[in-house]
Amino acid sequence: MAHFCTKCGTAYAPGARFCDECGNTLPAAAAAAPASPAGAGVQRRHVMIAGGVLAVVIVAGGALAWLLAPEAASASSFSRAIDAHLTADEAARDKLLCLTNLPYQKEEIRVAAYDSSTRQWLDILVRSGLYAAPVEQSSGGWLAQSQFVYALAAPGKAALRGDKLCVAKGVKVAKVRGYEQVREMGGQQVAMATATLALTDEATWLVKSADRALILQRLPHGDLEVELPLALVDKQWQVTDRAQLQQAAMSMAMAGALGNASATQGPGMLDKLKSLFSFGGHPLVGKWKAPMGGVLEFTRDSVIENAKASKGTFTTEGNVVTFAPEGAGGMAMQISLSNSNNTATLSIGGMPITVLQRVRD
Known about the structure:
The chain is an alpha+beta fold. Helix content is 29%, strand content 32%. A hairpin with a 2-residue loop joins strand 16 (302-305) and strand 17.
């Protein structure tokens, strides 16, 4: 494009400072913008893409690590496990929510006049609308007795599940503890959780009943509190079978495979307690039966299970007897005797495992 002097109109070459014809000072040429390297934009895009891919990899790696990590023992993880168990196990749920103290499946329940406690309970159900008001009848005969007949009403029939009278359709965990006392048993993390429950989908008749509190007290767990064993299975906390856990714990205790022995007692105290039973042994001597049918035999210096003896030391404090196996391979067992000395609760690592019944010859 040609440029011309503004004074005389003579054309001049680009970059000239003065007009060759009249000497007029020419305007300075606009500085050319530096050319951008052709690949700069592409390079920036590559850097942005690489950064985005790296961010995705980091986030995905963190998510994968989180998914693969074992579930932590916490109030939320224990609550989830117990809620899942009670949702899936109808029988366990019914044991919490249903009454079985009377034959509720019958159309009528007959109660003798002198049975005041049963009548008082049925009168509560009458006030709640589950039964019609009782009708008094005589049994007739030489020894005539007065009876009260309670007829099942429609709301009562609706509340039945089989032969059980149920107050709600479900429960959920309101509060849980025990997650702070996890133990290792045979290489598996276990804990005994205590959960306080709340009713869900409560029956309408119970909600409206003025005797709601009295009715709930008649449930098998009137305080709506349960104790359940939990284990870390496939990296998730789950409610486990109590009987299997008890049997495994007892067998492992006898085999001395539960970790290091308890060292909470000082040597002086141990010798002192040993001397208490230097003559005549300790109060556990004899055979004891577990609910699963296994038998433990305690001697003065051993515990025998399935003909296998584990030697150790018995010490006693109050009604608690502690058995510490010889060597460093076994965990101490604590056995708490009842007042009658006929039953005892066996605990390992502070966790109740089973209740033993003394076997009398």
